[in-house]
Structures are given as C-alpha cells and as structure tokens.
Amino acid sequence: MGHERLLDSLVSEISPFKPQLLKWVGNKQRFAHQIIGHFPKRFGAYHEPFLGAGGVMGTLAPVVGFGSDLFAPLMEIWAALKERPDELVGWYRQRWGLMREIGKVAAYERVKASYNAAPNAADFLFLSRACYGGVVRFRKADGYMSTPCGVHQPISPASFAARVKAWHPRVQNVVFRHLGYVSAMRQAKPGDLVYCDPPYSFSQTILYGAQSFSLAQLLAEILACKKRGVLVALSIDGSKKSGDLICDIPVPDGLFAREVSVNLGRSMLRRFQMEGRSLENERVADRLLLTY
After folding, report:
1. Hey, where are the domains in the chain?
2. pLDDT in tens, 261-272
3. What is the pLDDT at residue 199?
4. What span, in angstroms and rounded, lies between the C-alpha atoms of 192 and 213?
5. Given this model, what pLDDT does residue 263 score?
6. What are the b/e assignments for 24-38, b being 16+ CB within 10 Å?
7. Which residues have CB under 8 Å from 112's CB, separation 6+?
8. Distance between CA atoms of residues 117 and 195, nearest Å
9. What is the structure's pLDDT at 238?
C-alpha cells in the first residue's frame, strides 16, 4: 500500500480528543474514539468526504488523510487551520470583539448579514460558534443562513486560540479539498479507508447540504468503493426517543458486512426544534455500518 497505518496498538491508545474547533450539530467528536475503535486494524489513507466539524478526523490525526466537503467557506476554515492558524484566530477575535462593542445578538446579526451578503470563511467561523446549538441552517431557495443567535456565550478568543493550537498539529498530514463526496470517494485507492458521516436523511433536511443529498447515490458510491477494495464505514440514522423509534434506512443486502450502534446522547437538533424543552425522551443512537 505504501502508506499503511497499523492500528493494532493505536486503537487502545486513542482516547477522547475533547476541544471542539467548530460548534456543529451532529459533530461526532465526543464519540469519535468509539467509532475509531471499529476501524480496521490496517488501512492506507484515511478519507472523510463529509468533513463538517471533523471530529473523527481530529481524534484519529491520520498519518495520511484527505478531508473534503462541498461547502467552500467550511473548507477555507480547514485550510486556514493547517496553513495559517494565526489568521484563523484573528478572524474569530475580530468578530468576537464586536460583542463587547454592540452586544452579542447585534454582533451576531451583523456578522450574519455580512455572511449572507457574501459567504466567506471568516464570518462563518464566528457564526458556527455563536449560532443556536451549532444548527447551521440555510434557506433552500437562496442559501440564506437563517439560524438565530444561540443562548450560550461564545467561547473567548483565548479559548479558541487554545483549540487552534491543539488542532493544528493533528491536521498536518491531511490534504483539504473543496470537493463533493462522489469525486472525493472516487479518489480513494484499494486498501484506503473512507468514513462517511452524511446529513441525516431522517431528521436533518433543514440543515446545510441535506436538501440535495441522496442516500441512494451515496450507497451506490459505497458499493463502487467496495468493489475496488476500498474499506468504508458509514454513520447513519439509528434510533431516537430512547430507542423507541428506529429510523428505517433502505440499505441493500450484502453491501455491509456488519453493523454496530453508537450512543450519541441527547439530540441538539431536537433541542432547537423544541425550543429548549426537555430532551429526556430524545436520545439518539447512530448505526455504524461497515463493509469489512
């Protein structure tokens, strides 16, 4: 393979990587070490074609990695993290400082208006940390970001800088690419591992990227990967409401060799939809489907 990574000893050594860079609904970072524990013991390059907040990638810190997403401002943030971390910190510090001048909500609305006028990474970085629950929601008709300001206080520039410092060395072996998942997955070579964490088809149609996402097309690409010897792990809807509701996903027979369940705790998306009401009955589990 040329760039194999042996995980026999590393799986037991991988522990939770706690500091989240982006606040993002569906972020797997708290549970990433559990997901990685089901990765194969031996694989080539690591590919994450629905990068989002990159929780699994950041926890794994791959020796050879490729992270991609179709959302350009997001990929500009990742490129800055790897190549220009001080600039990334400066983007956040400048916009966070507006809160000291005009108040949190007014600052959020000003940055959101700036982003909606001309989508860019610097504005989106602050919005991702300040919006309600990390629910990045875009209006389908024109791409307008409509998520309101969160009730929480966004982390300080010093805290964000510390997170950038922790993340920066973990992505030095990752190539970031502005690509759709089809193109990204087709670049994976035999023996490589692809981890897919797509928009949840069951509950996330309001979120960025979900409105045009096709699960059937993704499953076809996974089959193509499997046929040419690429290993694939897929996180997809599992159960909600303490396991009472099973999300019925049409998965072709024989595509995956096994399935495990990963408990994700309470749903931040449902907290947003329920306007902060109790989530005692809104626990979520993911299905982790594996082709190996």
Report:
1. 5-69+170-290, 78-162
2. 887 654 443 443
3. 82
4. 24
5. 74
6. bbbbbbebbbbbbee
7. 123, 127, 145
8. 34
9. 55
Tokens encoding 125: 């970085």
Three-class SS state of 95: helix
SS3 state at 239:
strand
Give Dmax (Cα) for the chain: 58
Closest CA to 58 of 27, 90, 26: 27
DSSP 127: H
Altogether, the residues listed in the chain come to a count of 292
pTM: 0.85
Strand pairing class (5-6; 42-43): antiparallel
**How far from the centroid of its chain's Cα atoms is residue 50's Cα?**
7
Q: List the chain residues with pLDDT less than 70.
A: 1-13, 200-212, 238-249, 264-285
Return the closest-CA partner of residue 68 out of 78, 60, 58, 82.
78
Residues 6+ apart with CB under 8 A from 55: 17, 20, 27, 28, 29, 30, 32
CB atoms within 10 A of CB 244: 9
The identity of residue 178, as a single letter, is H
Beta bridge partners of 289: 234, 259
Pick the CATH number of 5-69+170-290 from 3.90.70.10, 3.40.50.150, 3.40.190.10, 2.40.160.20: 3.40.50.150
| Residue 245 in tokens | 């509701």
To which residue do tokens 């797509």 refer? 198
Pick the CATH number of 78-162 from 1.10.3720.10, 3.40.640.10, 3.40.50.300, 1.10.1020.10: 1.10.1020.10
**CA geometry: angle 265, 266, 268, nearest 5 deg:** 130
